[in-house]
Amino acid sequence: VQALAAAFPHNTAKPAEFGHDSALQPVEGQTAQPASPDVTGSTLTEANASAKTGAAPTPGENRAGGALDRVRADAAGRVLTTNQGVPVADNQNSLKAGLRGPALLEDFILREKITHFDHERIPERIVHARGSGAHGFFEAYDSLARYTQAAPFQAAGKVTPVFVRFSTVAGERGSVDTPRDVRGFAVKFYTDEGNWDLVGNNIPVFFIQDAMKFPDLVHALKPEPHHGMPQAASAHDTFWDFVSLMPESTHMLMWAMSDRAIPRSYRMMQGFGVHTFRLVNAEGGSHFVKFHWSPKLGTHSLVWDEAAKIQGADNDYHRRDLWEAIEAGEYPEWELGLQIFSEAQAEAFSFDVLDATKIVPEELVPVTPVGRMVLNRNPDNFFAETEQVAFCAAHVIPGIDFTNDPLLAGRIHSYVDTQISRLGGPNFHEIPINAPIAQVHNNQRDGLHRQAIHRGRVAYEPNSIGGGCPFQAGARGFMSFPQPVQEDKVRGKPEKFADHYTQASLFFASQTPVEQQHIVGAFRFELSKVTIPAIRERMLASLVNVHTDLAAQVAAGLGMAVPAPMPLALENPALPEVTASPALSLTARPGDGGIRTRKIALLAADGVEGSSLRVLQQALLAAGAVPVLVAPRLGAVAASDGATLEAVATMENSPPVLFDALVLPDGEAAVATLAALGQTNEFIVNQYRHCKTILALGASQSLLVAAGVAQQLPSGDVDPGVLTASANTATTAAEVFIAAVGQHRHLQRDMD
Ligand code: HDD
């Protein structure tokens, strides 16, 4: 066993993974009983916390994986078997009557293998099909018991395991990671009182106000049904046809056309619960609440030209980014903040808090930090975990309740319903990634793929034969907030829902000039792809109501005149409480200015001045960045001082858009080689256009000149992101360079 363990080392950073010396490993030939999920008591409490929950996480250790250990399989050192556990002698040849004879029907081994393969795929999600997930934990800063009895918020330091899935919305499962799109931000909390799913997005509002319109929205957004185009893109006729006829979508469009829709990383975007939810405390007292996740790394985005090019350079850009960061121990972290307000406060707002196209400005109700979420473990198996995870807006726990938001009402139905066909039946809650760590006992039985073996003959309640078990929890159980309801049945909307523009204008007014330009550019791009002029015109008419400058600039880009404004559904909306909200700008959360996990390209070729590159490399590593030596070909690069550097990427396999910044090397011979390559120019031009930091050492300054890159901005100011230095001053240059990369981008240079 020890020899095998040495030959097949398992990942010791994953504490509970089966390894050769693991206590979890079944002894060969012995039936392995799955560990009981509850070995210490009838309910999971802080006192008997299992390996999956506990008071505080040990740094580097991820407790969220524990409950999944009983189903993790590791074949290292094992014999190949059929699904019935029968050892397979030959996995190369089917059973035939003679070496050149026909295959035999009796070959159950071949048939089992092929049949299973034939059914490997399941339907993809109707929306949010493409996504990436990770395990982690949520840790409360303090008790929120005065507001809610929700388990994760009951004590300072309380830890609740989570599984998170980030996603795009429109694209299919195999589509790209960087289209202009909303990102899903779905968090499953495995709490002591059952699973709570906070199924949010990276944008705090939504396109529509009523779930009745969701199928229409999605049909308009998805590839057009006659020819199946375009993939993962909203820039087409049907989407803009629909939204231009639905002015309620305007506020969301402003966000979706902003840089929020092209995040640099899942690790660098906010998340929002979108709807107004309710917090309910043990006494039954209720407050309204909005959920906000804010990334520790700050909010950062791509620019559109870069996002479009990344689609070709790396389809898995965001998936890889998340995976690599977690593997490297650079665990992404978000702070959870709550906007808590009373129903009386909500009544007085100029907008309706039940309208998912509206935010509650932070100036009106501040965001209170209540805890942090850390993602510290990658899934072991993409399908078993990330694909099979089933988030449901209906999954709430005691202490969290719904409001009458009509969009939320439809979601409460839709998610469970969709899992039944996607995951093949009503027992998807038993799939390990979906199974709560709280025990499940009820009288639901049977159905496709039932895993639990229910004992006894009682599957009804009330019963006497089973001693009345399982019994109702009474006051300890989930009780809906007893909101009084006495109204006529109607199909309609409250009046404030008809104010479609006030908050769209607030959003635009709250952006920096560069952000406003990016919004203009996005509208221009998207509407330029619309082939029916009447749709473009209708959309412009709507934008006039947001901001005349916005409409004028978009119209100019489309070669169209600004039309008359679209008639308002509500002529005299209530005066807004705020007309500018700095928190709505991405610049409000710059992060700590550090450059951890940023990828930096160091170009090199034979003859490169080695010592200055090594200084840069060391300084970047020390700052937590990922310096990557990129050369015309892989392998050894001979430096002019006789040393050898190792190129781990080529200019062909790693285009410039995959890097956050660029270092050009000193060394006459290397610079001459690089100057002769078209890719060098592309590296410099792309990095420059995308407002990234470039450092040219010594002789490579000629490459900047050749690429037409100036060190001065059009304004005459020095460009803080175009740096030059001699090789001798590499140590100082590294400091300046790192500070400049920490700015993320030099948008003063923005030129597209
Ligand atoms: Fe939804 C998936 C977020 C409105 C119906 N939605 C889905 C996912 C996220 C959201 C993050 C992916 C979950 C995962 O990673 O598996 N959806 C939202 C937000 C909304 C929203 C923030 C508005 C506030 N959704 C919405 C409505 C409906 C749906 C109004 C239907 C009435 N959403 C679904 C769905 C999906 C889904 C069809 C597809 C796959 C799935 O549920 O599991 O049920």
List keywords for this structure.
binds CIS-heme D hydroxychlorin gamma-spirolactone; 18 strands; ten-stranded antiparallel beta sheet; six-stranded parallel beta sheet; alpha/beta; 752 residues
Q: How would you characterize this protein structure?
A:
- There is one protein chain.
- With 752 residues, the chain is an alpha/beta fold.
- The chain contains 19 helices and 18 strands.
- It has helices spanning 2-7, 108-118, 214-221, 237-244, 250-256, 304-313, 317-327, 343-348, 382-387, 406-422, 502-509, 513-528, 533-544, 548-558, 610-622, 668-675, 678-689, 701-707, 730-741; strands spanning 131-140, 159-168, 183-191, 194-201, 271-272, 277-280, 286-295, 333-341, 368-377, 400-401, 599-603, 626-631, 635-638, 644-647, 649-650, 661-664, 693-697, 722-725.
- The strands form three sheets. Strands 1, 2, 3, 4, 5, 6, 7, 8, 9 and 10 form a ten-stranded antiparallel beta sheet that branches.
- β3 (183-191) and β4 form a beta hairpin.
- The chain is globular and about 90 Å long.
- Mean pLDDT is 92; it is low at 8-27 and 30-63.
- The protein binds CIS-heme D hydroxychlorin gamma-spirolactone.
- The site of CIS-heme D hydroxychlorin gamma-spirolactone has 25 residues, from β2, β3, β4 and α10.
**Beta strand %:** 5-15%
Termini separation (Å)? 61 Å
Report low-confidence residues grouped into runs of 5 or more.
8-27, 30-63
**Total of helices:** 19
Keywords: Heme, Hydrogen peroxide, Iron, Metal-binding, Oxidoreductase, Peroxidase
Family: Belongs to the catalase family. HPII subfamily.
Domain Catalase core: 81-469
Pfam families: Catalase, Catalase-rel, Catalase_C
